[in-house]
Design a protein that fits this description.
Number of helices: 11
Radius of gyration: 17 Å
């Protein structure tokens, strides 16, 4: 129920056409909700992603404020929500920012690695992303070591219509990194 209200608030705020609205909005989310995981999941994983889409339309021409949120003192859940907004934008600037986020995450920075989950769809999404973007995201997913990345990386390698050597190389190296990370940490989720 709360997620529906927040989704509706996102639509209403986006209708004002004021990009500065994002900072106070995410500050309120962080201060009022101790754990946003369920709310963020309902806003981004449900059939009704209209709140995310409305926010994405507001930032289509300028992702700078979204980048500030990602680099700011906000919770992982808020940053994950911003990643979902960026995925909906579908512009070169948004894709560049998403790729940069992943490339900037080290294995030890697991708090933001939760933001990698919405990006797991990028390597297999031929319609929305260039081969370069898909390859760089595949490589970064392997470096982060998030187990949900295994499925899309395997899908890239087993797709009979996928013939880009660079993408395949990034996906294969990423899978190797994931397997090594699983062995290092004794984590059977990578097997």
């Amino acid at each position: 129920m709360v997620s529906q209200y927040i989704g509706d608030a996102m639509k209403i705020l986006a209708s004002f056409d004021d990009t500065a609205i994002i900072e106070p909005f995410v500050s309120i989310l962080d201060s009022e909700f101790g754990d946003l995981r369920l709310i963020a999941w309902l806003l981004t994983g449900s059939r009704d992603r209209s709140g995310v889409r409305h926010m994405a339309s507001l930032y289509r021409d300028d992702v700078g404020l979204l980048e500030e949120i990602l680099n700011g003192p906000y919770s992982v859940d808020v940053k994950g929500l911003v990643v979902h907004i960026l995925r909906e934008i579908e512009t070169q600037n948004a894709n560049h920012l998403l790729t940069g986020i992943l490339q900037g995450i080290d294995e030890d920075e697991f708090p933001l690695s939760g933001a990698a989950e919405p990006l797991c769809a990028v390597p297999t999404d031929k319609g929305r992303y260039t081969v370069d973007t898909r390859g760089h995201v595949a490589g970064a997913l392997g470096r982060i070591g998030d187990p949900p990345a295994v499925v899309p990386l395997v899908a890239v390698l087993t797709d009979p219509d996928e013939d880009d050597d660079m993408l395949a190389s990034f996906a294969l190296n990423a899978l190797e990194s994931l397997v090594l990370a699983g062995e290092e940490f004794g984590d059977d989720r990578y097997d």
